[in-house]
Write a structure and sequence with these properties.
The protein is mainly β. 5% of the residues lie in helices and 67% in strands. The protein is built from 1 helix and 18 strands. It has one helix at 32-40, and strands at residues 2-7, 10-14, 20-27, 43-49, 52-58, 64-72, 78-84, 87-90, 96-102, 105-111, 114-120, 123-130, 133-139, 142-149, 152-159, 162-168, 171-178, 181-184. The strands form 2 sheets. The chain has a 9-stranded mixed sheet with strand order 4-5-1-7-9-11-13-15-17, with no helix packed on it. A 9-stranded mixed sheet has the order 3-6-2-8-10-12-14-16-18. The radius of gyration is 17 Å and the shape is flat.
Length: 186
């Protein structure tokens, strides 16, 4: 699954035998006509190529947003990006690569390599089993809880605290420029 959103939430969770995409579009403006025009300019492409599904929103606008709730089979790799909005991923078995410019990221009960980046927003990973975990944030707190990693846990933030609770890995690469690092149960 590949999701490219501009503004709005993305919530992906495992359940069922097929990919089901539910979306809620919202338009904003100084009048109903302006809000309707913002929605009319919003384009959503859903493309399937074999087992791969791509969901793409264009153009980027501050006058409209799309909130996605997506159900996927348990064995699904997920790539999701969002300019403005929160990302959630849960209960999948497959690699995950998630990025948002402004918004929080929550990943729970996932098995697979996890790579996460939030320019402005908190990141929380919980109940993860992975070969490697990489989390980066320019401004936001990062919290990992009950994470088991075969190789390296990499966590870097410019502004924010880093908290690891019951995170087991072969090696740790932890950095914050402005904040504290707490490790409990390594």
């Amino acid at each position: 699954l590949n999701v490219e959103n501009t503004t709005g939430k993305i919530d992906v969770t495992a359940g069922g035998k097929e990919i089901v995409v539910t979306m809620q579009k919202k338009g904003y403006g100084g009048s109903q006509a302006d809000a309707d025009a913002a929605l009319a300019n919003l384009k959503i492409d859903l493309i399937q190529n074999g087992d791969a599904v791509t969901v793409k929103v264009a153009p980027q606008t501050t006058n409209a947003q799309v909130d996605f709730t997506i159900t996927v089979p348990e064995q699904t790799a997920v790539v999701a990006s969002n300019a403005f909005g929160d990302l959630k991923l849960s209960k999948t078995k497959g690699d995950a690569e998630l990025k948002t410019n402004a918004g929080s990221i929550r990943v729970s009960e996932v098995q697979g390599t996890v790579k996460v980046q939030s320019d402005f927003g908190d990141v929380r990973l919980e109940s993860i089993t992975a070969d490697s975990v990489e989390v980066r944030s320019n401004a936001g707190a990062i919290r990992l809880k009950q994470v088991k990693v075969k190789e390296t846990v990499t966590v870097k933030t410019d502004f924010g605290n880093v908290t690891l609770d019951q995170v087991i890995a072969k090696s740790y690469d932890l950095k914050t420029n402005a904040g504290k690092i707490d490790v409990n149960g390594a």
